[in-house]
Design a protein that fits this description.
By secondary structure, the chain is of the alpha+beta class. It is built from six helices and 25 strands. It has three domains: 101 residues, no CATH class; 142 residues, Beta Barrel (OB fold (Dihydrolipoamide Acetyltransferase, E2P)); 163 residues, Efflux pump adaptor protein, beta barrel domain (Elongation Factor Tu (Ef-tu), domain 3), CATH 2.40.30.170. Helix 2 runs antiparallel to helix 3 and helix 4 runs antiparallel to helix 5.
């Protein structure tokens, strides 16, 4: 409570002040100039309401006709009447102030938590890495010549087979060009045939010296020129036939065709090869991902130590809904070198896709066996606390208080994380009630149910996304 510490002057006649003396809490004051009296100065602590009420009452009484006569008795006995109220308020304030330190000094109650020691087990450690799926074959369907799109002979999003007719470009102009080329070829063949006969006749005449050498050479040159014209006409026919064939656009691979980028009736191929659609093969599918240098080295050491470096490298795919893809894949390719910027090795896996469940561009997790770890410590995933990017667990110390331990995660298995460092097998790790505690908090431990033993056949998967290694 806010109290205004002020002094109040109780007016008294000088004689009264001398006769009565001063009581505790009062001291005499000399006569003020102008009022011809003495007053008793009282130091009190007033609430704002009492203080300002006293001030207003004093001003009003001074300005009224009867004010000077009423001022002394009213102020004297009015203020004295307020003493019990002021003292009671001050007493309440003092009691409140005494209670606050007592409340702070109270010892906090212990928080009930469940805790248990880490589970120690031999587990296979799997690498789990984020990958992106891609089709083994991707083909862009483009118009290779200019013309109006006449037909579209497929359903968007359907499966097409190699050799299926997809589009037809208006062929009339190219049919006419082919006819012209064939006609020109016939003409050149006729001229060449005549030149060939003439050359044979002039050759006999030249042998009989009936014609000069120049005339014979002229016929020979003409025959050779017409032979070249025939070859040129044949090439023109081939080009016209090829262009006419380009008006019928055929599927080059078997796969799923996407949406059409150009509708029937539009002009295509003018100035560029217009993209009409795209086809992606569906079976098998690639999974592209990257693996850290550390994981690659661990994997290579484990395989070489086991003497199976030439063994096929199996991969498991985890879909976006955390379900396991039913078909197992294998590593198809590992890049020749690590990326200098990221320090990772690009790897490509290949998975069968007979049902078409996998789509190009789809994200998935690739799981790969890195090593078989003996005596690994596991704690439940719910016991891991993420503090500014660092992984920690809460451990119950000997004095019953909470300590935060930073740990290094090496993988996961059946809802538990493999702990590489930061814990000992005897540490009591909090597994329930984590949201109610902080480092330094006093807790009371209730034993958590024992975790089931980890079977060695189960997989332990790391937590950092990267990629799985291929055969080194």
């Amino acid at each position: 409570m806010n109290l205004f510490h002020n002094k109040i002057i109780l007016p008294q006649k000088c004689g009264q002040a001398k006769a009565s003396g001063t009581r505790p809490g009062m001291r005499p004051r000399r006569c003020g100039a102008g009022d011809g009296c003495c007053g008793i100065e009282i130091h009190v602590a007033l609430t704002p309401v009492v203080y300002y009420s006293y001030k207003i009452l004093r001003i009003v009484l001074r300005r009224t006709v009867m004010g000077p006569m009423l001022l002394r008795p009213v102020l004297k006995y009015g203020v004295l009447a307020l003493f019990p109220i002021v003292l009671s308020l001050a007493g309440c304030s003092g009691q409140d102030a005494e209670k606050k330190p007592a409340a702070k000094a109270a010892e906090p109650a212990a928080v009930m938590v469940q805790a248990r020691v880490p589970v120690v087990s031999d587990v296979p450690v799997y690498g789990e890495y984020v990958g992106r799926l891609a089709a083994k074959e991707n083909v862009e369907i483009r118009a290779r010549l200019e013309g109006y799109l006449k037909e579209r002979n497929f359903t968007e999003g359907s499966i097409v087979k190699k050799g299926d007719l997809l589009f037809v470009i208006e062929p009339r102009q190219y049919q006419e060009n082919l006819q012209k080329a064939k006609a020109e070829l016939e003409r050149q063949n006729a001229l060449f045939a005549k030149a060939k006969v003439d050359l044979t006749r002039f050759e006999q005449l030249y042998k009989q010296q009936a014609v000069s050498r120049d005339e014979y050479d002229t016929r020979l040159t003409n025959q050779r020129e017409l032979a070249a014209n025939v070859d040129h006409a044949k090439a023109a026919v081939d080009a016209a036939e090829r262009d006419l064939g380009y008006t019928r656009i055929i599927a080059p691979i078997t796969g799923r065709i996407g949406k059409t980028y150009v509708n029937v009736g539009n002009l295509v191929g003018k100035g560029d090869n217009t993209l009409l659609a795209e086809i992606s093969s569906t079976d098998p599918m690639y999974a592209d991902f990257s693996i850290s240098e550390r994981d690659y080295l661990e994997f290579s050491k484990a395989r070489h130590a086991n003497g199976d470096k030439d063994r096929e490298f199996p991969l498991t795919l985890l879909l976006a809904d955390d379900s396991v893809y039913p078909y197992q894949g294998e590593a198809d390719m590992a890049d020749r070198a690590l990326d200098a910027k990221t320090g990772t090795l690009a790897v490509r896996g290949i998975f069968p896709n007979p049902q078409g469940m996998l789509k190009p561009g789809q994200f998935a997790k690739v799981r790969a066996l890195l090593e078989h770890r003996k005596g690994a410590m596991l704690v439940p995933q719910r016991a891991i606390v993420d503090v500014q990017g660092a992984k920690s667990v809460y451990v119950v110390a000997a004095d019953g208080k909470i300590e935060a331990r930073t740990v290094t995660l090496g993988g996961s298995k059946d809802g538990s994380f493999v702990i590489d460092s930061g814990l000992t097998p005897t540490d009591m790790v909090v597994v329930e009630g984590i949201s109610k505690i902080r480092p330094g908090a006093l807790v009371k431990v209730v034993s958590a149910p024992d975790a089931p033993a980890a079977p060695a056949a189960q997989a332990a998967t790391p937590t950092t996304p990267a990629a799985a290694p291929a055969k080194p």
